[in-house]
Amino acid sequence: MRYIRYAFLGILGAALIAVALANREIVTLTLLPQALGELIGINHSISLPLFVVIFLAIAAGLLIGFVWEWMREHRHRAEKSKAEKELHQTKREVRRLKGKQAENKDEVLALLDEAS
Question: Average pLDDT by consecutive 10-residue portion of the chain (116 residues)?
């Protein structure tokens, strides 16, 4: 299994290097369209190789997807936490009730009830 993982990572690395080598041209990214930027007074632009833009877009998409999924699953995690809390509380109450029953019984019978 480890070799399959290494092979996959090697193929992925080779593909990323091929994309980077094929897209070395410099592109200019502008924050806003020129007319809108002049109207607002914000004209920011940056020049980067195209492969950097591609890799940053992929990373941003992954990050947005992970955050979106984490927020979507919040309800499930809260329900699980609540169920675990109730289970712990129920176990504690069962132990307490068994303790009350054991007060009126013989010690040997109480030990046998605890073992089962």
Answer: 93 91 91 86 90 93 96 94 95 83 65 69
Alpha-carbon Rg for the chain, nearest whole angstrom, is 31
pTM recorded for the entire structure: 0.62
Helices 50-72 and 74-103, axial angle in degrees (round to 10)? 40
Domain boundaries, the chain: 2-72, 75-115
Beta strands, E only, 1-116 = 26-30, 45-49
* pLDDT at site 99: 73
Burial of 20 (0-12, 13-18, 19+ CB in 10 A): middle
Q: Report the alpha-carbon distance of residue 82 to residue 80 in Å, rounded.
A: 5
